[in-house]
Specification:
Layout: E1 10-13, H1 16-23, E2 29-34, H2 44-47, H3 71-83, H4 86-99, H5 103-121, E3 122-132, H6 137-148, E4 153-160, E5 176-183, E6 194-195, H7 200-207, E7 212-213, E8 219-226, E9 229-234, H8 235-241, E10 243-244, E11 248-250, H9 270-280, E12 286-289, H10 296-303, E13 307-312, H11 315-328, E14 335-337, H12 343-352, H13 354-364, E15 368-369, H14 372-378, E16 389-393, E17 402-409, H15 415-427, E18 432-437, H16 443-451, E19 454-457, E20 462-465, E21 467-471, H17 472-476, H18 490-508
Parallel strand pairs: 1-13, 1-14, 2-3, 2-12, 4-11, 12-13, 17-18, 18-21
Antiparallel strand pairs: 3-5, 4-5, 6-10, 7-8, 8-9, 15-16, 16-17, 19-20
Length: 509
């Protein structure tokens, strides 16, 4: 099987099984983190109910974290049984005999096929962290033991998080996820590290040690050295050593007021991924996330000086990641593979799935998608009626965020669409409205847009068209939205204006 060279700092759009096989060479990745979507909120009776196989596609859609047993699952199962190594073939056949043909088995079959490929691309010194919850973790551990070998199991990490606990009738509140940590071999990269003690009082309370004072007036404790022996340890040294991290991690989930929050339902906190990446990779290593969602692992890898590869099957995910990376790292350079590059591909995407087209089109202007969940399930617009995406900027002394509203149309367009956008901009008290269209705009549409007038930026002392039309063809050629800089500040705008005035005075003096 011929493979293309690995591409670092790249987002891939598409089925990760296909991309792993086509793009990622053997033993080329240092660390793999994956958080494969699975609808753990469904009742076990539903997950294990036999399915007729009439579902249209065995894949995970943007927010419907459910697999189904159908033709695609059956084909993947057949491939594993006939082509995978013998021990993997026997394992997956035994699971089917035990579990049956249902959503749970479909999920496990699809995961087994991908874990075989992930094992292949992992370096001998590499590690894999699989994020799951108790719904399927025990089955995934069987699969991982089979593919990676039980001796290469390192930890079942418990990610514990706080939350509001209700009084339940038949169980305790669920407050943890599971992260299964495996290595390719017994010589993996691992950087043990410790968390600092917040104070002497915290150390004494948790360690339950009495603080003593020696003849020189220095504080010390008697630490357990094993075998019934105790060793003298100065308190200052003990505090500096910190608390080595164990396999129970108390890291809070993101709440609605978190600055990290992107509105993606399975988003994980950056601190969680930073801990994994720091522990099992070094600067310059390659981190792979084959179910990268909104890209927390990718963002953490970039922040910590690692190279990275992200794969996802929705343009919503890729769009959110592009937005997030450019927001966190304004000067970042990365590649995107699998997106439309020309009009023919754009039209095909619009024909295949208009919501995927919408999310991709928003990424061309670096607009943050709105209403992904509603759009994927019900076909409705975003949380603000008539808005598909938004761009935020600041250009005055009050630091008040201002919004550019973006609408995307993949079908027939008319002048009434522009009038509707004008009304939406006025109703939402927005600054600029942008209309992205696959079809060329009519003369009446252009007239309506021009008639909306201009927005006069107080910071940049420039006028920008209030309503702007951009075609996909123009955007593919590099067209931009006319607006104040997204990452600029009022002070930068004032300085730029003064520099421009000084330059003009010097020119005419």
């Amino acid at each position: 099987m011929s493979q293309k060279p690995i591409t670092e700092n790249t987002l891939f759009y598409g089925d990760n099984l296909k991309i792993l096989r086509e793009y990622i060479p053997d033993e080329s990745v240092d660390l793999i983190y994956l958080d494969p979507p699975f609808n753990s909120n469904r009742n076990y009776n539903v997950l294990f109910k036999d399915e007729s196989g009439s579902e249209s596609e065995a894949q995970i859609t943007a927010f419907e974290d459910t697999w189904h047993w159908n033709q695609a699952a059956e084909e993947t199962y057949d491939e594993l049984v006939t082509q995978a190594p013998d021990h993997v073939s026997k394992m997956i056949a035994s699971l089917r005999d035990f579990i049956g043909t249902n959503q749970m088995m479909a999920y496990l079959v699809m995961m087994a096929a991908r874990l075989v490929e992930l094992h292949r691309v992992l370096k001998p010194t590499g590690s894999l962290y699989l994020h799951c919850d108790p719904t399927a973790s025990h089955y995934l551990k069987i699969i991982l033991d089979t593919i990676f070998n039980p001796k290469n199991f390192r930890n079942e990490i418990i990610w514990h998080y706080s939350g509001w606990n209700a009084r339940l009738k038949d169980a305790f509140n669920s407050r943890h996820d599971i992260i299964l940590f495996y290595t390719k071999a017994n010589s993996q990269v691992f950087n043990s590290f410790a968390l600092p003690w917040e104070s002497e009082e915290e150390y004494v309370k948790i360690r339950k040690q009495k603080v003593l004072i020696d003849d020189e007036g220095k504080k010390y404790v008697l630490s357990d050295a094993g075998g019934g022996q105790r060793v003298k340890r100065y308190l200052e040294e003990a505090l500096q050593y910190g608390r080595p991290v164990d396999d129970v991690w108390d890291i809070d989930k993101l709440n609605n007021s978190s600055k990290e929050k992107l509105g993606y339902p399975t988003q994980k906190p950056l601190a969680l991924l930073e801990r994994i990446i720091q522990a099992s990779s070094n600067p310059g290593d390659i981190v792979l996330d084959p179910f990268c969602g909104c890209g927390t692992a990718i963002a953490a890898a970039q922040k910590l000086g690692r190279k990275w590869i992200g794969i996802d099957i929705t343009h919503l995910s890729i769009t959110l990641q592009k937005y997030r990376l450019r927001d966190m790292f304004p000067d970042i350079q990365f590649n995107v593979v699998g997106e439309p590059r020309d009009m023919a591909a754009a039209k095909q995407l619009a024909q295949d799935n208009r919501y995927q087209f919408q999310w991709w089109a928003l990424s061309l202007v670096q607009a943050k998608p709105l209403g992904g969940q509603e759009g994927s399930k019900t076909g409705k617009k975003g949380s603000d009626r008539g808005i598909d995406g938004v761009i935020t900027f600041i250009d005055d002394a009050y630091a008040k965020p201002k919004r550019v509203l973006v609408q995307v149309k993949s079908g027939h367009v008319k002048s009434g669409d522009i009038r509707d956008l004008v009304g939406t901009v006025q109703r939402e008290n927005a600054t600029i409205g942008v209309f992205i269209t696959l079809e060329p705009p009519s003369r009446d549409m252009i007239t309506e847009a021009v008639s909306a007038g201009y927005y006069d930026s107080p910071g940049w002392h420039q006028k920008y068209p209030r309503i702007q039309i951009r075609t996909i063809a123009e955007l593919l050629k590099g067209a931009k939205i006319e607006m104040p800089p997204q990452h600029g500040t009022f002070k930068q705008a004032q300085k730029a204006h003064k520099d421009e005035e000084a330059g003009q005075r010097e020119l005419f003096s």
